[in-house]
Write a structure and sequence with these properties.
The complex is a heterodimer of chains A (143) and B (500).
Chain A lengths: L1 E7 L8 H9 L4 E8 L2 E8 L4 H10 L3 E3 L4 E3 L19 E3 L5 E3 L21 E3 L2 H12 L1
Chain B lengths: L9 H10 L4 E3 H11 L1 H7 L2 E3 L2 E4 L4 E5 L11 E4 L2 E3 L7 E5 L13 H9 L4 E6 L10 E6 L6 E9 L6 E3 L6 E3 L2 E3 L6 E3 L18 E2 L2 E4 L2 E8 L12 E6 L8 E6 L3 E9 L1 E3 L3 H6 L8 E6 L9 E6 H5 L2 E4 L2 E7 L3 H17 L9 E2 L18 H4 L5 E3 L4 H11 L3 E5 L5 E6 H10 L4 H4 L13 H11 L3 E5 L5 E6 H9 L1
Parallel strand pairs in B: 1-2, 11-22, 14-25, 27-28
Antiparallel strand pairs in B: 2-21, 3-20, 4-7, 4-10, 5-6, 5-8, 8-9, 10-18, 11-14, 12-13, 15-26, 16-17, 16-20, 17-18, 19-20, 22-23, 24-25, 28-29, 30-31
The chains are: A alpha+beta (143), B alpha+beta (500).
Chain lengths: 143, 500
Amino acid sequence: MVRVLLRFSEEQVPQPITSQIILEYKVPIAILAAHINSKGGEILAEIPDEAQEKIIKAFRKRGVSVTVPKLIEVDTEKCFSCGSCVALCPVEAISIDKDSSVKFDKEKCVGSTCSICVDACPARAIKSVKQTNSEQLANNRKK
Amino acid sequence: MSKQGKTRTVEEINEKIRKGDVQVLTAEEMKKLVESSGVEVAFKEVDVVTTGTFGAMCSSGAVINLGHSDPPIKIDHAWINDVEVCHPGAAVDLFIGATNMSEKQPFEYGGGHVIQDLVAGKEVELRATAYGTDCYPRTQLKTTLTKDDLNQFYLLNFRNCYQRYNCAVNSSEETIYTYMSKLLPRLRNATFSGAGELNPLMNDPDYETIGMGTRIFLGGAQGYVIGEGTQHSPKNLNGTLMVKGDAKKMPPEFLQGAAFTRYGTSLYVGLGVPIPILNEGLAKKTAIRDSEIFTDVVDYSVPRRDRPKLRQVSYKELKSGSIIIDDKKVRVSSLSSLKMAKKVSKTLKSWIEEGTFFLTTPIERLPSDSVFKPMRQTGEIPFVVSVMHPAVTCTENEEIRAIAERIVTKSVNHIVVIDGAGKLRGIVTSWDITRAMAEGKKALADIESRNVITAKPDEPLEIASKRMAQHNISALPVIDIEKKVLGIVTSEDVSKLLGR
């Protein structure tokens, strides 16, 4: 599975773009997080690996901005495993393992669309790379 | 063990340390041994139990001596890495308080970080000003320093190692940021602090072996208890320690600067106390489990000294990751690090086993009967509850005309709209009524404001008053957690109080 961030403009919001793509390509797309209002919005979606290329193309063809979002970055040097972040995580991506260490599950983390844990870390060990940065990264990669 | 077999002494234990045959268990291991083999066996087999805790301890700091500059300066104000440090004594002695914040990066970098950076061997920048005297003529100073340049660099923490601490929640509608970290609205998370059954004072709750002069693990080096900590409150199991240790000997790992968003900075301190198992009673006490240690779940949304306590909870429940409050499962985070607390107790154990750490008998035990008193206040702060009065109300199906009449007969400017259960629905002002007349509107629904700015009875009046000014309004309905209207507070109430 690959995780992508779809960004819709004001004009695109009323159009059933995601449903059209699901129906057209017969590919299941999981929506992990969505923040949309009439002015536009973002959907964090998961696409099966094998369909990744054609689905991303399909969204881009319809004018939707597609980026691969950076997830939460944890500086393991700084983290002293207090666990302040654990109960805040809405998708239970952070847990305490048997040796009392704090563990991050990158697979579960919904990344920069959430970021609820970032300002709760007393060690300032958690960084969320803003979408604009990953967009820049994606653009740089294109060049 | 002494001849009677009922007690052992610190001297006997130290002799065993010297010979290399001392039996040391961490608190974690001791609990398992007592559970499997009983107190009697545990007492016979174990000489020392090592404890540990690693948490944010705001009342921490460091005393440093800089040596004299040329020409000499009697420092008046000083900053290290833009963090203001105190000058409590003579010319060049400074105290770095853990919670003092950087003037350039407030809330992100503070005294705790300065201590951490110095301990790590980093170079820091010192700036100082003075008024200049005949003996200390210099008025300005700027230099860089490392710990090696300091004559003394002592950790001097006036309150560490709280025996146990509250569990914090927030029942309000807004996220709040506290020293108990980020608390989500409507009890969506809880936080707690403390190592529970590994905490030093919990393993010797009568302070039989801990007191002034007790040698301890402090920040990764040997340190000492120098007495009771401030706010020491043994009667309700809230004992604290005042400690001192040579920070030059401390490795970077066990002291960590910390930043709590919108609260400030602090210092995480690793602290461990060896408990000599002098008698069976101590063997039994060091077997205490998290399930036997209770604390209160406290609602931090109430900005008062005595905050509402929602229930009692054990450290076992807290460490399980979730607790139940009012039939609701609330996920809990620890603020202190259990992983590091265990590391403290294991490191201390290895020092004793290796023969580099010897136990001491305290020269004075910690007080066991003192109480932590609230502040004596010569003036009372007014709260919303002290000035609010009953609200004049209406329901949504009433006619505007009836409401207009009520405004006149009751001589008020605000009518609070409630539902059948007395809960807040909206607010109507005399101005809304005037506008309705001008625009020919008849239905209350068309003119009432539903986005009502409110106050809570426990809030200081000053905060409520600022809220009115901020929103350019002149009254706040006072509501409880369930939105039930308790009364109203108006700007007139505030001015009357000020004019008294």
